[in-house]
Structure formats: C-alpha cells, structure tokens
Write a structure and sequence with these properties.
Blueprint lengths: L2 H11 L2 H12 L22 E7 L5 E4 L4 E7 L12 E11 L5 E9 L5 E8 L4 E7 L5 E4 L4 E10 L4 E9 L9 H4 L1
Antiparallel strand pairs: 1-2, 1-10, 2-4, 3-4, 4-5, 5-6, 6-7, 8-9, 9-10
Helix pairs in contact: 1-2
C-alpha cells in the first residue's frame, strides 16, 4: 500500500483508520534508535548474556549483567596485544559488568584487526582498579565478531593468567561510537 492510497483510504474511512494506517506504514521504519537490530531489519534480537563458567576461583562463576555497564568502541593503529603498530584495529570494552556470582564488577576488553577481524587480545579484569585478572592474546577460536549488529560472540573461550581462569560464553554488544570512517570495519 502506498502513502497516496493510504490517504485515499483515510478520506473514505475517517479518523479511526488513521492509527491503523500509520501503524502499518511506520512498522517498516524501525525504532529510530541506535540499538543493534536483527539482520534484515526489524526489532533487535536479544543476545545471550555473558556467562562465566569453569572459573578459578569458583566465585567468579556467574552471569555478567550488562544493563548498567558502560561501553566503549574505537579504533587505533597503536601496538596492542598480538598486533604490531602497523595493524589498524578496533577496540571494544565493557566496564562495570556486575557478576551474579560474587556481586563484584568486572570489565571485558578485546581488540580485533580491521582488515580480517582477527582477535588480537581479550582481557578480563577487576573494574574497581582496572586490573587485568586474565588475558588471552590472538585466540583463533571461540570469538566471533558481528559488525552488522555490533556484537562479539564468545563460545567456550578460555581466558587465563597465573591466578585466574574463566571460560566465557555469550554475547557482548557495543555501541557505535567510533569515527564514521571506521564504522564499516568496526561497527
């Protein structure tokens, strides 16, 4: 139905039809916000939460709540993780993720190369002092970058250090706050 035919229908049907006709036309327009949407348009698809399992210490096991977290996304050419200074990369970070296991707040940070989305590092740490508790550089499996929906998916990704080990599953969503010239590569 075109806008013109809708207006003709509106004249015939009167004001009560206005709400129905507007709903039909506006339904295809999306929400107008910056929320990542499902492929093909429409409403955003709920992503699985970030879950920590097989943790040492075991108190880290739990779900990382994203609702009150703060997020960053950016890009750089500086050396970071498995990247040399010549590798332009994208960086995504979430701070203040409340862990249902121990009630403390943690951060997750990662970087991926712009050209092929290879992961250069994933950090997990204590948000109170921004200290990294566990880190993995250049994992080849367990991380999927979804640029279109601005999401990072984790599947059985083991992140460890001398005193901490976690397995991360779920999804981390991130905002569009990179420079416009980097959005095609970084989301």
């Amino acid at each position: 139905m075109t806008v013109r035919s809708s207006l003709i229908q509106l004249r015939r049907c009167g004001a009560p039809a206005l709400a129905a006709l507007l709903a039909v036309h506006l339904a295809g327009c999306g929400g107008g916000d910056d929320t990542p949407a499902a492929a093909g348009g429409g409403a955003a698809v709920a992503a699985p939460p970030l879950v920590i399992s097989a943790a040492s210490p075991a108190t880290l096991n739990g779900t990382l709540g994203e609702t009150t977290a703060q997020y960053e996304a950016g890009s750089s050419n500086e050396a970071l993780g498995g990247f040399a200074s010549t590798d332009p990369y994208c960086r995504v970070a979430a701070y203040g993720l409340t862990n249902s296991g121990d009630g403390k707040k943690y951060f997750v940070e990662l970087a991926f190369r712009k050209t092929d989305r290879a992961i250069g590092l994933v950090n997990f740490g204590d948000n109170s002092n921004l200290a990294t508790l566990a880190r993995v550089g250049s994992p080849t499996t367990g991380v999927v970058v979804d640029i279109a929906n601005r999401r990072i998916g984790f599947t059985n990704l083991v992140i460890s250090s001398l005193n901490t080990t976690i397995t991360l599953n779920g999804t981390l969503s991130y905002p569009t706050n990179v420079a416009s010239e980097n959005r095609a590569a970084c989301g």
